[in-house]
Amino acid sequence: MSEIRRTPDDSDDDLTRRAWLLRLGELTALAGVAGLVPDLAGAMTLTVREAAAGLPPGLYEPSTEHLGHVLAARDAPLVPRDAETDFAVPRRGPFQPLFFSQHELDVVTRLVGVLLGSVDARALSETIAWLDLRLQSDVGIRRAARTLNPSHRALAIAYYGQARVTELETVDSQAIVRTGLKLMEQQSRERFGREFLGLAGTAQTDLVREISRTPPESPLGRCYLFLRREAIRGYFTSRAGLIELDYKGNTFHGACPGCDSRRG
């Protein structure tokens, strides 16, 4: 397993953290298997205990209930619908924004398209849906962050750092985005004489490049950094992004599927 290092570069922060959490997820999955496969139990239980050392007790015990449901299905490729682990419900019908107005949705879709570059329409749509959900949930996220019990808050700080936890507790992302979008439209009119959606593709790219150089503590800079971070997060949790990462997920098998090659 390669070592994941945090860097001071904010542009790499989310991807670095995500890679670390994926590895933590793989470790937890293996710990769950260890409870059912005796020859793995000793090594994996020790590894999990070492990983949890120094953190609040009682928060790192792997649960095998979800794994048991999957293994009980034997050769079934998916968890049966309505099983205890069937919590993902696909959206039915076209996407309907919960936070963005239609104009804001159009602007953000084009802005994120510039940020991500050449991505297919489905991946862009899934990214925008994530952004809309993240912002619609902002008040609830902030409330939940403020009411964490001390042990869970300590765990969050251990995972994400004090600055990130404080941000979740205090920052009004909805106001940041709405203010930033208005300022972007104002800058577009001052620079090009028309609003963002009325610009040609090259002019839109030039404007986004200018905005990226805005001081990060300014209202426009804060909006840009938030949208960039969440666009990256949304894309790399979309179908296309997961394929690009070659991410297999926490996949459980009734029998070991083996591997295609050996590593020296």
Q: Which H/E pattern describes the elements?
A: HHHHHHHHHHHH
- Largest sheet report: none
Kindly estimate the percentage of residues that lie in beta strands according to DSSP: under 5%
Shape: globular
Q: State the helicity in percent bands.
A: 55-70%
Structural class: mainly alpha
Counted beta strands:
0
Count of runs of 4 or more consecutive helical residues? 12
**Regions with little confidence, pLDDT below 50 for 5+ residues:** 1-18, 20-48, 55-62
- From the N-terminal CA to the C-terminal CA, the straight-line distance is 13 Å
The residue-averaged pLDDT reads: 74
Radius of gyration: 22 Å
Total tally of structural domains: 2
Task: Give structural notes.
- This protein has 264 residues and is mostly helical.
- It has two domains: 61 residues, no CATH class; 144 residues, no CATH class.
- The chain is built from twelve helices and no strands.
- Helix 1 packs antiparallel against helix 2, helix 4 crosses helix 5 and helix 7 packs across helix 8.
- The longest helix is centred in the first third of the chain and has 25 residues.
- The N terminus is likely disordered.
